[in-house]
Amino acid sequence: MPDSPLSDSPYEVLGVTADADAAALRVAYRRALRHAHPDTGGDAERFHAVQRAWELVGTPEARAAFDRGNGPGMAEPEHAAWAPSAPRPRRDSRPLARTYGHPGGWSRQRYLDLIREWAGRGVTLDDPYDPALVRSAPRDIRHVLADALAEEETARSLATLGIAYTVWHDLATDAAGAGLPPKLDHLVLGPTGLIAIQSEDWGGPVAFKRGELIGEALAGERPIRELAARAKSVTRPARVKPTALVVVVPDEDAAVPLEVGGSVRGAAAVLVRRSRLASAIREGIPGAPVLGGADAMEVRSRLQTALRFA
Question: Are 274 and 233 in contact (CB under 8 A)?
Fold first, then answer.
């Protein structure tokens, strides 16, 4: 799996610019390795990051491959993973969940608008997903692309829930705060409840504290409060309430597979790793009420007539 658009590039890990010459790169590597070495009081995780950075850009061949977005050890080039992809062929014939909407569509379009605006008027971007261009963009722009990728990954996971579940993506809401997307990423209905989901990649770890998510990468955001407001705005016209509020993040950004952080207006608030999402929904979100078959059908009928897409 390629790195997130928010991940530090090897150049950032080593503390040099992307146009540093080979000699400067080598000096930076030795300095970073010395400072990060556990035997000299450094951090083991940082030490391994420095070593990995050198593997990616330490030789002319590796550096050229990385700059093209196809570094060693990547399952696929970054560009191929960051750009929109064709539907993947299915490997089994099990029924999929009913799905509506375009996951990641709003965020993709927002990214394209922002990257073109940042590049400047009159500048033609032959490839808005070029790895060098993405890495050079401001963090807020890279965050939008990271969110689009996260939403698409979540959608692939939710589709595997099976025919008992209905999933809506990119639902319009008027409850978004300043600078936040005017949408709810995903809404899932099935026998284990009505679950509002936000797909996120903040580029750093998050955890619950007093019912809200905290983390250095959040920059003042209050994800649970904001998700609750979006979910209420989306479901209120249908006269239904979500049973769970779920924020899903990359596996490395959550300390445990699933963490319950209390409840908001009766809906369980949960942080879950991406790889755990589908199984958590099938098993039932801890603390969230389940829906009987007749209740689920009634809720689905109401939602179908009330929901709007972003």
Answer: no
Quick one: 251 and 197 in the same domain? yes
What residues pair up with 100 in beta bridges, in sequence order?
Answer: 168
211 and 292 inside one domain: yes
Domain assignment present for 41: yes
Answer yes or no: is 5 within a domain. Answer: no
Same domain, 198 and 166: yes
Provide the whole-model pTM.
0.84
Per residue of the chain (310 residues), give pLDDT as tens.
Answer: 457 898 888 888 899 888 889 999 999 999 998 888 888 888 887 888 899 889 988 999 988 888 776 665 555 566 667 888 776 776 777 788 999 999 999 999 999 999 999 998 777 888 999 888 888 899 999 999 999 999 999 999 999 999 999 999 999 998 766 567 889 999 999 999 999 999 999 999 999 999 999 999 998 889 999 999 999 999 999 999 999 999 999 999 999 999 999 999 999 999 999 999 999 999 999 989 888 777 889 999 999 999 999 9
- DSSP string covering 254-293: -SSSEEEEEEETTEEEEEEEGGGHHHHHHH--TTPPP--H
Same domain, 126 and 14: no
